[in-house]
């Protein structure tokens, strides 16, 4: 491709609204342009990278036994109403009406659509298992689009779905998909971890997220420093044991604590450790109030609360709800003398607190000398806190450390969540009607593009892994008005192209400094510069990843390129 004939509008300055490297570099290197908040055009270079990522995805999905199809982005509301998600998905679902006032949604995901397709065609266990996938644009009305294409309102996604007659069959395909995802992200040149995750609004069990390690990641990964264990921080169980003090129990005393609301404030005011304080957090779990207790140095994990109760929705109680349920403002609430309408549960660590401190359910007052088993009615003890760095790894090997990650893939065992609600059934070998068992497997294709840039860049621009680079070789004639340089550059361009390489030639009438700056910014793996020694048959080769540069004769150039890039 001739650079003068394509569209690569590079920028010298970092755009003011671009917060992260991938967003900055995709704008500066002419890969994307924003059309409106959270919506981007992918320019020719980005489009080529997306197609390469898609090809890697297709190869691995096909190897895993999945077939590609394409479903509509416009989905009728009736399908979402069948599954119940029309009412529960939330404002992220983009809804619209046609001229006949019929309701539709722009596809944020395609569980309902694929389930409706398969239920209408598959009636026997003999046609199962079946795995289908598509690569298509998705739409989600993000409240706060940010970080360029990492969190947008329109994005490119691969979503796959599998249908099974048995859980054993689902287990087999899940492993295949898990392996395919490992292959995909490895081939894209990413440093990633597969972590245990929560299925959220998707439903299902046995789910893993594929996280690209990055400081700008919005998710925290808890991982062992000595084993392969890794989990999203919300899902990491705590296996710590707690020793209870042998200190003699003291009398419960109510004391005035003016304006001391936080654990930090109350521990300083009373000169006690955070570990001896009891943090009380009121949640609305579906339609009932639940007071959750954790030790003062811990934080409540709302996902664990949700899983404990098998709830659909868990939300922090508002100030008004807290006053209604506990007759007290937040900051002074506690588990003693609460209404029977409020269930009280506690994290395991609470059982080790002796003569602790908690809110008195009276503004400006706390209790001291609190001993939970004596002073409060706890319905159950459970693992309800976030794991912390330094805790024992849940697999018993090593201790926990934290890292930030960008989610680029997610695999789920959906079970019968959608097939039961949408009546997707089959006849088993005994002629009995059974709901299909489903799996779901998603990859953010456009997000993967940005994640690659986050991990592969330097102070001069992008440094593309060879597997996904928009071009492999960048040929640059220093002076296009010099016939020797121009002719040799075009000759090399033609020969490399005929040899099967993807080549970009900078045939623009620009200063060499501009060409080199753009070349580093775009980040192609190999640069071949045709300069003053063109008449001698000598060119300069630069490897973008290492910065290494050297002169080589044209006679030896092809062999050298072959050594660096392969066939």
Automatic annotation (TrEMBL):
Residue stretches making up the Aminoacyl-transfer RNA synthetases class-II family profile domain: 38-465
Superkingdom of the organism of origin: Bacteria
EC number, UniProt record: 6.1.1.15
Top-level enzyme category: ligase
Pfam families, sorted: HGTP_anticodon, tRNA-synt_2b, tRNA_edit
InterPro entries xrefs: aa-tRNA-synt_IIb (IPR002314), aa-tRNA-synth_II (IPR006195), aa-tRNA-synth_II/BPL/LPL (IPR045864), Anticodon-bd (IPR004154), Anticodon-bd_dom_sf (IPR036621), Pro-tRNA-ligase_IIa (IPR002316), Pro-tRNA-synth_IIa_bac-type (IPR004500), Pro-tRNA-Synthase_IIa_type1 (IPR023717)
UniProt entry keywords in alphabetical sequence: Aminoacyl-tRNA synthetase, ATP-binding, Cytoplasm, Ligase, Nucleotide-binding, Protein biosynthesis
Catalytic activity, as annotated: tRNA(Pro) + L-proline + ATP = L-prolyl-tRNA(Pro) + AMP + diphosphate
GO molecular function: proline-tRNA ligase activity
Subcellular location: Cytoplasm
PROSITE patterns: AA_TRNA_LIGASE_II (PS50862)
Family statement drawn from the similarity comment of this UniProt entry: Belongs to the class-II aminoacyl-tRNA synthetase family. ProS type 1 subfamily.
Record note on domains: Consists of three domains: the N-terminal catalytic domain, the editing domain and the C-terminal anticodon-binding domain.
Subunit structure: Homodimer.
Function: Catalyzes the attachment of proline to tRNA(Pro) in a two-step reaction: proline is first activated by ATP to form Pro-AMP and then transferred to the acceptor end of tRNA(Pro). As ProRS can inadvertently accommodate and process non-cognate amino acids such as alanine and cysteine, to avoid such errors it has two additional distinct editing activities against alanine. One activity is designated as 'pretransfer' editing and involves the tRNA(Pro)-independent hydrolysis of activated Ala-AMP.
Protein name according to UniProt: Proline--tRNA ligase
